[in-house]
């Protein structure tokens, strides 16, 4: 319980810090506006060309709200892998490793603290634009139902990006790994196109991988919040969280033995 | 001629500096190539399912993405500091360039090379090769279009980032403008109505980086060449003028620092 209080305090401090510069927070969140506008242009033309109000069970309104949540999850994340890589390069990692806390839990507490208001601001700006373009979501309650899946998505993303960040213990510059991870998350997570529009064989592969639990699962749950989908999304997420948390713990323990600190 | 010699010397020094860490350099170049291939797979999936967007097909996407990637890569390699000029201005780091007997703007923007730009630059040519529009005279037009689109791009970066002379720290605004330019540049121009197109030729000149160069590469027309030439010259003129105007307001950071 005492240990939990420590990480809760770290989370609270980071959460408060993230509000210290509201202009910065708002400025960063404006990025979602051109994205949502261009998605609207693309999908409006695509739906008009298809001659149908529904494609694979999704209406234009569903697709736009799906993309809004997908972008909110993506744009709300702090650049954790780059931060860890920078800490390794400049030697400041030494100050994090010798403190009386677990490095991974410390990073988790700060990451979630940084994420919450970023995601909230993106959801507000993105939501206002999409509402103006296509109207209210068909299932507003979907946002509440999707919340556990959004939290699960953040945990999964945390595990993957920390693993990429930890590779800095060996290779120092992790930007190439991060770009490739980000693009795999785009394509296999359904970031720009819902997975429902993919060929069947690719849907099967994508839905079995953790990327779909990070983006597609929560976003689809938001637009079609059924009990069956909730159970399915959460089950796959929990399986991947357990697997990746174990791999991450192992990778961290091995990685620390490789670490060479360059100064500090 | 004197300035060209100077630029060549700066670029050579940048390249040697980047090559000092060969593994990191290669990982950035190859990583960016792979990154672009994976990103483009999204468009392959999209056009496989929906065929075309108002007459704009996958081949047009290959071409547009190719010229945009090559011009982006060229600017990253040769004028890497154009991406963080606002930081240099707001943190008083122009002092270093002002104290040397070379053109301030040219020296400042050319003093950094982003290694991943080489991956983007190379990818653009591969994308053009895969587009189905490849011809040898088309390749010459691709090179010319890349140069002109890169001029528009670097001018746009200088223009936006020079606003730091008036606004101070503005990393969010410059990131927003950059993202808008690249996003609108990649998407099919046929999506937009006339008002949006007007914006894409002026305020956010994405059309001059994607659709117009692609049109020029597909078929030579004097009109598309004129659009590119006038666009590149106008943006470069405005960017340099705004930078010079802003420079008069510049206040030194008075910080002792070393540029490496």
3D architecture notes:
The complex is a heterodimer of chains A (264) and B (260). Chain A has helices at residues 2-17, 22-29, 32-50, 60-75, 80-90, 93-97, 103-134, 142-166, 168-171, 175-189, 200-208, 210-214, 216-223, 227-258, and strands spanning 54-55, 58-59. Chain A is an all-alpha fold and 264 residues long. Chain A has one domain (2-258). A two-stranded antiparallel sheet of chain A has the order 1-2. In chain A, strand 1 (54-55) and strand 2 (58-59) form a beta hairpin. In chain A, helix 3 crosses helix 7 (103-134), helix 4 (60-75) runs antiparallel to helix 7 (103-134) and helix 7 crosses helix 8 (142-166). Chain A is globular, with a radius of gyration of 19 Å. The model of chain A has no long low-confidence stretch (mean pLDDT 90). Chain B is mainly alpha-helical and 260 residues long. Chain B has one domain (2-247). Chain B has 13 helices and no strands. Chain B has helices at residues 2-19, 22-50, 58-78, 85-90, 94-98, 104-110, 116-130, 136-162, 164-167, 171-186, 194-201, 211-218, 222-247. In chain B, helix 8 packs parallel to helix 13 (222-247). The model of chain B has no long low-confidence stretch (mean pLDDT 90). The interface between A and B is medium-sized, with 33 and 37 residues.
């Amino acid at each position: 319980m005492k240990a939990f209080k420590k990480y809760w305090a770290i989370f609270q401090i980071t959460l408060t810090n993230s509000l210290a510069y509201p202009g910065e927070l708002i400025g960063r969140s404006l990025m979602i506006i051109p994205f949502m506008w261009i998605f609207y242009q693309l999908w409006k033309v695509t739906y008009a060309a298809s001659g149908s109000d529904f494609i694979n069970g999704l209406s234009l309104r569903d697709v736009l709200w799906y993309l809004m949540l997908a972008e909110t999850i993506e744009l709300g994340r702090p650049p954790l892998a780059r931060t860890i890589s920078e800490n390794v390069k400049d030697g400041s990692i030494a100050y994090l490793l010798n403190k009386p806390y677990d490095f991974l839990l410390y990073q988790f507490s700060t990451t979630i603290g940084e994420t919450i208001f970023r995601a909230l601001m993106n959801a507000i700006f993105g939501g206002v634009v999409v509402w103006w373009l296509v109207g209210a979501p068909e299932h507003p309650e979907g946002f509440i139902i999707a919340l556990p899946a959004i939290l699960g998505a953040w945990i999964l993303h945390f595990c993957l990006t920390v693993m990429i960040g930890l590779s800095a213990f060996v290779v120092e510059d992790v930007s190439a790994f991060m770009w490739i991870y980000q693009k795999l998350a785009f394509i296999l997570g359904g970031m720009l196109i819902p997975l429902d529009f993919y060929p069947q064989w690719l849907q099967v592969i994508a839905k079995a991988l953790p990327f779909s639990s990070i983006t597609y699962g929560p976003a689809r749950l938001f637009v079609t919040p059924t009990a069956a989908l909730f159970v399915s999304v959460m089950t796959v997420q929990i399986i991947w969280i357990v697997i990746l948390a174990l791999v991450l713990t192992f990778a961290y323990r091995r990685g620390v033995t490789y670490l060479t600190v360059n100064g500090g | 001629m004197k300035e060209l010699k100077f630029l060549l010397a700066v670029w050579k020094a940048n390249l040697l500096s980047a090559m000092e860490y060969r593994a990191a350099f290669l990982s950035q170049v190859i990583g960016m190539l792979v990154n672009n291939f994976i990103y483009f797979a999204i468009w392959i999936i999209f056009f496989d399912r929906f065929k075309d967007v108002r007459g704009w097909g996958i081949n047009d996407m290959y071409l547009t993405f190719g010229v945009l990637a090559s011009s982006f890569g060229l600017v990253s390699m040769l004028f890497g500091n154009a991406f963080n000029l606002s930081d240099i201005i707001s943190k008083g780091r122009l002092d270093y360039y002002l104290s040397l007997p070379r053109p301030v703007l040219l020296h400042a923007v050319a003093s950094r090379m982003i290694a991943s730009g080489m991956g983007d630059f190379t990818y653009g040519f591969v994308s053009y090769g895969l587009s189905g529009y490849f011809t040898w005279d088309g390749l010459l037009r691709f090179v010319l279009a890349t140069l002109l689109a890169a001029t528009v791009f670097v001018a746009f970066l200088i223009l936006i980032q020079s606003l730091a002379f008036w606004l101070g720290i503005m990393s969010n605004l410059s990131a927003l403008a950059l993202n808008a330019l690249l996003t609108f540049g990649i998407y099919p121009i046929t999506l937009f109505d006339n008002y949006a197109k007007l914006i894409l030729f002026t305020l956010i000149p994405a059309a001059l980086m994607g659709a117009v160069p692609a049109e020029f590469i597909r078929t030579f027309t004097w009109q598309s060449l004129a659009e590119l030439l006038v666009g590149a010259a106008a943006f470069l003129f405005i960017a340099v003028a705004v930078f010079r105007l802003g420079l008069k307001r510049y206040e030194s950071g008075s910080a002792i620092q070393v540029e490496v």
